[in-house]
Amino acid sequence: MDLMIDLEGLATGPDTTILTIAAQAFDPFDQGYYEQCYYARVSLESQENRKIEQGTIDWWATQPAIVRDEAFAEDGRVPLDQALDELGKLIWHSKRIWAQ
């Protein structure tokens, strides 16, 4: 099982403040997608030392409202350490990790 991971954030570097983490298990050579997946909105308060860049904020302002509303929704946010713990359980069972 391979795993594709996608992060949405408020900057472009490795120290970005993360808005959402999504992951989907799949087989790129045969069976398509598996049921194993993960999605979390990450609380901004749990990421005090991470970056926010004005250029990325400006980019988010150009995105469709439905996309912005999902990424910036306040309900159901979890601390970053919890999101990474939960994602790690899915990663543990993966052969390869694909990041977008």
Question: Could you describe the 3D structure shown?
Answer:
The chain has 100 residues and is α/β, with parallel strands linked by helices. It is 29% helix and 35% strand. The chain contains three helices and five strands. It has a five-stranded mixed beta sheet, with helices on one face. The protein is globular. The chain starts with a strand and ends with a strand. 12% of the residues are buried.
Structural key phrases:
100 residues; alpha/beta; five-stranded mixed beta sheet; 3 helices; globular
Characterize this entry briefly.
The chain has helices spanning 54-61, 65-72, 80-92, and strands spanning 2-9, 18-27, 32-42, 77-78, 96-99. The protein has 100 residues and is an alpha/beta fold.
Radius of gyration: 14 Å
> Residue share in helices?
25-40%
Which regions contain 5 or more consecutive residues with pLDDT less than 50?
A: none
The number of helices is 3
Distance between the termini: 17 Å
Percent of sequence in beta strands: 35-45%
**Biggest sheet, in brief?**
5 strands, mixed
Secondary-structure blueprint:
Elements (H helix, E strand, L loop, with lengths): L1 E8 L8 E10 L4 E11 L11 H8 L3 H8 L4 E2 L1 H13 L3 E4 L1
Parallel strand pairs: 1-5, 3-4
Antiparallel strand pairs: 1-2, 2-3
